[in-house]
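Supplementary notes for students who missed Thursday's class. We covered one full example, reproduced here. Read the sequence, then the structure, then the short commentary at the end.
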Amino acid sequence: MPDFHLFASGPRPVAPFSHAVESDGWVILTGQMPTDPQAPDAPLPEGIEAQTVRVMENLALILGEMGLDLSHLVQCRCYLTHFERDYAAFNATYQAFFPADRRPARTTVGVTALAVGALVEIDGIARRP
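Structure (token representation):
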């Protein structure tokens, strides 16, 4: 049976979901928003770079609660509301979180809108060693 995880230290859910679901060593991470877990009602950071950093920190926080880190990510899906405008800056910020030879597989798509007015959302799949 899968294990469903919702962590008190994690970002407040913006919809009915678990932060992560684990089955047979695979960890499926819900898309993270650029919200501050310590101040969920605070305004979002301004700009794609700051929002990307917050999203990656939130992914790391959830993985950390499970005894994992970003190096365990094998795949990410990234969603941008202003794809053409933000893609290059997003990539520059995102790549800083991974060694050049250890980046997860990735898909990035443009979308018309995201919850809480975010510019970026990232979900992922991690593998427990």
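Commentary. The longest helix spans residues 48-65. The helical segments are 48-65, 83-95. If anything here is unclear, bring it to office hours.
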